[in-house]
Design a protein that fits this description.
The chain has 8 helices and no strands. With 148 residues, the chain is mainly alpha-helical. It has one domain (23-142): Cytochrome c-like domain (Cytochrome Bc1 Complex, Chain D, domain 2, Orthogonal Bundle). α5 crosses α8 (131-142). The longest helix is centred in the first third of the chain and has 18 residues, at 2-19. It is globular.
């Protein structure tokens, strides 16, 4: 019983430590925004039109399964909140990072700076998302943008 209490206390303290970061991630992403940067990977051009709600629903499911263990939309979890990210990073950059995480972590200056700023956070695991799934996540993220 006492061991369980100690383990739970340590777990609770770790959660508090990870969640004690700035909660307005939009300003974190906005600091170094570059909508012309396409990142490193196979996606060279994404043509955006009106939001495809069906694709966004699929993207919300992929986000829940692959991204939500570390990312929330509005609140810092283990990693930055993502509301507004589509206004400061290009669609190509977002999709390339979802599909080519490891290489971008090694070579992309923006991602390296973000990792340095969040050095107490576990490095994003490569989700190895296919193009269709990364496009769906992008569409979902478009539905939760901050208004200007």
């Amino acid at each position: 019983m006492k061991v369980n209490s100690i383990v739970m206390s340590i777990f609770f303290l770790l959660i508090l430590a990870f969640c004690g970061f700035e909660t307005n991630s939009f300003t974190i992403f906005q600091q170094k925004s570059n909508l012309k940067d396409k990142g490193i990977g196979p996606i060279k051009e994404v043509k955006l039109g009106p939001i495809d709600q069906k694709l966004a629903v699929k993207g919300s499911r992929v986000f829940e399964a692959s991204c939500s263990p570390c990312h929330n939309i509005d609140d810092v979890n283990l990693a930055p909140a993502l509301r507004g990210i589509t206004k400061v990073l290009s669609p190509e950059f977002i999709m390339n990072y979802l599909m080519n995480t490891t290489e971008m972590q090694k070579k992309d200056p923006y991602i390296q700076k973000l990792m340095q700023d969040w050095k107490n956070v576990p490095i994003m695991k490569d989700q190895k998302l296919k193009e269709k799934d990364s496009r769906a996540v992008l569409e979902y993220l478009r539905t939760v943008e901050n208004p200007d």
